[in-house]
Design goal:
globular; four-stranded antiparallel β-sheet; alpha+beta
Length: 349
């Protein structure tokens, strides 16, 4: 359960990054301290910054810079990779096409998913069969993003190893049938600057992305350094800004981790409001479970919570479609109960 946190903690995870594959990892006092801080951050806020993550700051910035260049292109160029059900829900969305709780979001984006082959997960995975729709302009966009994806996947695995230790489990507790073959999602997002005004002449606060939780295990957010837009809601309902810290990622946990921990860790509501007159970009990498993983509270987490199962079992792939296609995006996890009938409805939208 989240608390009335007033700021988002910053954790130097370099000891964990260096030692997480060591079988005696918890004997290292520096790693043990990182694990303690991860546990506290996941309990108190569900959000934290990481530094010492090993991904070059130059690459992090280059990813944002090339994203700005793409969104600066005319619409007719961006629409060459337009998202549709025929593209496996991959590709470009115009401003206002993404919906949260029935309200259009004021952002544009490229949606990318781990590529699936037909029949890999039966009928469940078939709507996402296909290849990612990378733009040819700017040059090297595909090469840069694919390099970045490899590094984000590896970093996320290492952070999840730390979280497994924080819960008192083995370092690989989230691997195997849970996330030994992880799915991933990449959203390359652009938020137009504020240009409209209210009747009193003040800048209008358009919602770049409405309040929601993420649906996987862990999210890595790479945001512009000079614009404050991401906000996280604490227990009292206050919105706390995730002020950019250069060279860091903002991390948050998602619905699948909430289920696995039986609510010990919270998937916290967050939203984006770009109050700046300048265009803002954010590249969000979502580290997920296995696509067909059946997610239920872990025994070690049931023991921590009195032995009673507080959250329903979910199949990740069903939850992904149910939330991402709009029928319960923005609702609390316990309000969202995926079933095959609703899943079919979502896929027909």
């Amino acid at each position: 359960m989240t608390t009335n946190f007033q700021s988002i903690p910053l954790i130097d995870i370099s000891p964990l990054v260096a030692k997480c594959d060591d079988p005696n990892v918890m004997e290292n006092k520096d790693v043990a301290e990182v694990v303690r801080l991860l546990d506290r951050a996941c309990r108190d806020a569900g959000f934290f910054y990481v530094k010492g993550h090993g991904i070059p700051e130059s690459l992090i910035k280059e990813v944002r810079d090339i994203t700005h260049k793409f969104f600066d292109l005319p619409y007719e160029e961006k629409l060459k990779i337009k998202l549709s059900n025929e593209t496996g829900y991959r590709g470009y969305q115009r401003v206002g096409e993404n919906i949260t709780k029935g309200v259009p979001d004021m952002h544009e984006a490229i949606d990318c998913y781990r590529e699936l082959n037909k029949g890999m997960y039966g009928d469940l995975g078939d709507p996402l069969v296909g290849t990612n729709k990378w733009p040819t302009d700017p040059m090297n966009f595909k090469k840069l993003m694919e390099e970045y994806l490899v590094l984000c996947t590896d970093l996320s695995r290492k952070i999840m190893r730390g979280i497994a230790l924080a819960l008192g489990g083995s370092v690989d507790a989230f691997e195997g049938k849970i996330a030994g073959d992880p799915f991933w999602v990449l959203r390359i997002i652009g938020y137009p600057g504020v240009t409209s005004t209210n009747d009193d002449g003040l800048l209008k606060n358009d919602i770049g992305c409405g309040a929601h939780t993420d649906y996987g295990l862990l999210t890595l957010v790479n945001q512009d350094d000079d614009k404050i837009a991401l906000q996280v809601r604490n227990l009292s309902g206050e919105w706390i800004s995730a002020v950019p810290i250069p060279g860091t990622f903002v991390c948050n946990i998602g619905d699948m981790l909430k289920i696995l921990t039986n609510g010990v860790y919270e998937s916290t509501l967050h939203r984006v409001i770009n109050n700046s007159p300048k265009y803002r970009v954010c590249v969000a990498y979502f580290y997920e479970t296995n696509f067909d993983a059946v997610i239920s509270p872990l025994d070690m987490c049931l023991k921590k919570t009195g032995g009673n199962k507080k959250l329903q079992t979910a199949v990740y792939g069903e939850h992904l479609f149910h939330v991402a296609n709009g029928s319960c995006r923005g609702l609390a996890l316990e309000q969202c109960k995926p079933d095959l009938a609703s899943l079919k409805y979502c896929l027909e939208l």
